Amino acid sequence: MDRSGPRDRRRAHRTRTPGGGLRMTDVSRLDLYAAEFNADPYPTLDRLREETPARPVDTPAGRLWLVTRRADVRQLLADPRLSKSVNVDLGYYPLPPLQRRSGFHMLNADPPEHTRLRRLVAKAFTNGRVEKLRPHIRAIVEELVRPMVDRGHADLIADLAFPLPITVISELVGVPPADRYAFGDWTGAMIAPRSPEHALAGREQMTDYLVALIAEKRRHPADDLFSDLVAVQDEDDDRLTDPELVSMAFLLLLAGFETTVNLIGNGTYLLLTHPDVYARLRADRGLIPAAVEEFLRLESPLSGGTPRVTTEPVDVGGVTIPAGEVVYTSIASANRDPDQYVDPDRLDLDRADGSHLAFGHGIHFCIGAPLARAEGQIAFDTVLAMLPELRLAVPPDALVWRGGILMRGLVDLPVRW
Length: 417
Prior knowledge:
Elements: H1 6-15, H2 35-39, H3 42-51, E1 54-59, E2 62-67, H4 70-77, E3 82-83, H5 97-100, H6 113-122, H7 127-149, E4 153-155, H8 156-161, H9 163-173, H10 182-191, H11 196-219, H12 225-231, H13 242-272, H14 275-283, H15 288-298, E5 308-310, E6 314-316, E7 319-321, E8 326-329, H16 331-334, H17 369-386, E9 391-392, E10 414-416
Parallel strand pairs: 2-8
Antiparallel strand pairs: 1-2, 3-5, 4-10, 5-8, 6-7, 9-10
């Protein structure tokens, strides 16, 4: 008689190789930035979940505590004992002078500052406002895909996944068309830098640009979010300070398109490596919203939550993380935890075993989630309609995943039809 519980049965099913042996992964020298780890982090994350709920890891930015189990990740994402404030004088903080020019935003704040900052921009990303944008988003997607149809090949990242969200967020916030593509270089340097100097150079160029852009919006306001932020006043006569204006602009542009680039790229990769699911989705495009949620879970555009710092000792599954430690919650691991998901490595459009954490959890839940979902749904619907014979132009193992511990996305995605 099988006396194992759901946890045991799921793990036994999941970790056995076709040959019957248990898959083993050496995590004694874990390098979160290694090319091998970025190419396929999941076997290592599987083993980490098995071994311990939290463990310290050395990185180029210093030591952090890596948390991998879904229940723990979800708890810590909403735990007020983990601070996001730029004033925390530990770990990744305080921000160096360059970052301080662009670091005073809601992702680096705790309540009540976080509450205040989020309230001032939340109205731009409501479900209602995003629904009104859908026809325009579809027009942008069709304009991008139409020239691809007769060409027979494309890099889906460069030709669709990148220009779509950068166009949408730039129009929303008020970045002139001629300046939009510079953000790709700047954000790429910050998300997957070749060196610390490369990352700082990208941040400096983007921050300098935003300082100048906000000054222009102050002189010549327009019908866009940046102009609204410059002029915004709530019922308490509360305005954003100049550093907060620059920082909020920085956050909205960086977060407003990077995750959507990865959603479209990662989701297309999953479809093209799962032909049965691809065929089903082509036959029934009404499944696209469910497919987008499964793409977000299985290949999360955000690998982990941005760093938090413990303000007091925190117990994580019996392991105590001391006060003053940097904590990194692995969303990629949490979204494949067999304690939550049956057969978690399978792409399943009918999955009914719990929501994912791709947009985070708690007060820092991604404010742009409705916009990212809409862009992803419209992009996949349009591609399936206009490029139904899409297929990879290279073997899957020839694709390169970008480095870094925050984002997960492909460098490029060559396709043909």
